[in-house]
Amino acid sequence: MICLKSCVEFGCLNFGRGVHVDAFKFGLNANSFVGSSLILLYAKYGDVDDAYKVFDEITPKDVVVYTSMITGYAKIGDHRAYGAFWVAGNMQQEKLDPNRVTLVSLLQAAAQLELLHEGLSIHAMLLDVELVAQMREGKSIHCFIIRTGFHLDLVAMTALIDMYSKCNCLIQASKLFNRIEARDVILCNVMMAGCLYNEFASEAVKTFTEMVRKCIKPNIGSILNVLGALSNLKDKKQGRCVHGYVLRQGFHLNVEVANQIIHMYANCGCISYARQVFNQLRNRDLVSWTSMMRGYIQHGQANESIDLFRLIQREKVEHDSVALTILLQAFCQLGHLSLAKEVHCHLYRAFFKRDIPVINSLITTYAKCGKLNMARNLFENATKKCTTSWNAMIAAYGMHGDCVNALKLFAHMKEENIEPDEVTFTSLLAACSRSGLVEDGLHTFRSMTEEYSIKPCEEHFSCLVDLLSRAGKLEEAYNLVKFLPSRQRAQALGALLAACRVHRNTEMGEMIGKNLLDLEPENASAYILVSNLYADGGKWDVAAKIRSMTKEKGLRRTHGYSLIELNEHEKGVNIS
């Protein structure tokens, strides 16, 4: 027993297998204590099949054995976690009552699988095992908790909050969290992670601030969560404050924290700060390199990203498919077709040819470099395709103005029973807009909402407004914009304003321009659009005034540019 527990603790799987063989020789494999330790050992390394074989050999099975197997399934982290509920069902048939550890593990499994109904049922069991049949509705269970004021221990409450958060029930998770006075760092981390999971980054930052105020010392998990939240919010000021805290507490020596700081600064537009952190990091891992490369891509500095890849090779760091995908994005930005072909050849030499993300990036790169045929051949010859593969090819047809083939590919996608997502419809609507196929675009939009129940986002509305605007249907486009929430209007208003200028509808353009400047007072492109509209209408004084406002605010427009590849100036990358 002690030997097996040491194997679990110190990660000695092979030694543990040897102990298993000895246990089998002496007939101890059916012992519940030995078996439970073996189950936990195998499950820790994701070998749930061997764990279940051990479980099957144990006779008789008690609560500890069932709980060990349920815990093993719960920690797997994929679809196999469903096994936890199957084992729990067998446990009930044996008329064995679950203990607290059993129920917490079941909650963890429900959180992994985002099974709200099962989680609510377990919540009821935590309250009273006999109430499961009576309390099936989530609201009834919640009301029961409020009425009885039932006290749950900290571990169970943490598991409940995690389950509700991952099932998109952040309100219930927050209510449970706010009821707890004696909080620990793990509970706060779970709450912050739940806020991030549900895209409430500002709430995650508030939780961290409250945690520090209550003298709960953050750990590495806390720092990673708050940096992730600030990265999403693009809050440079608070990000620097947290960076200072990290330096004072010595967390900067942890490579995961340093990588997250690099990502945060890159997202906040401070690429030079990100590079400083990267340069000072001694024990860089591949994530450090790829985070910095991706940051340069975000800021349009593809050459810097390529230089970093050369450094990776010089320092003999083993690259992966993520690094290759980012490298392809850099080549795509610079229009380096021949270097993209080198990556393509490398995929075959290094047996990466079945790596779906890299293949998808290659499809996009070839399409953006004007080689639609190469993109199509790559797509058609791919041994495996995911939804992103189909999306990449649909987008490739769209950017080349071939809406007919984009729609045909979408029809083929449906025949293959591939479920489309939001990106699929964004690509289709953009393709219809470029080709001026209004009816096809409207049909696609209706299909998205009615057939696939996908809620339209800002990009979808913007594409639809652009579609109507290009066709000269400005009134219909404006009526659509008026029904949008204010936070989803900016992109659509920009497309409509550009169309007003093309179709010389100055009156509507002025009205839309004012709305756009109210929504995006820090967007330089919005000021330029409005200024150009007034200039076209002969209102030079107003145009000049708006231009001067951009200078006063220190706003600078990002200029567009095109690149062509010149062989004599090309600098290669040796991908080996």
From TrEMBL:
One Gene Ontology molecular-function label: mRNA binding
Record key words, sorted: Repeat
InterPro entries in the cross-refs: E_motif, PPR_At4g14850-like_plant, PPR_rpt, TPR-like_helical_dom_sf
Keyword Metal-binding: no
GO biological process terms held by the UniProt record: RNA modification
Keyword Repeat: yes
Ranges: PPR repeats: 62-98, 184-218, 285-319, 386-420, 421-451
Name of the protein in question: Pentacotripeptide-repeat region of PRORP domain-containing protein
Species name: Hevea brasiliensis (Para rubber tree)
Classification lineage: Eukaryota, Viridiplantae, Streptophyta, Embryophyta, Tracheophyta
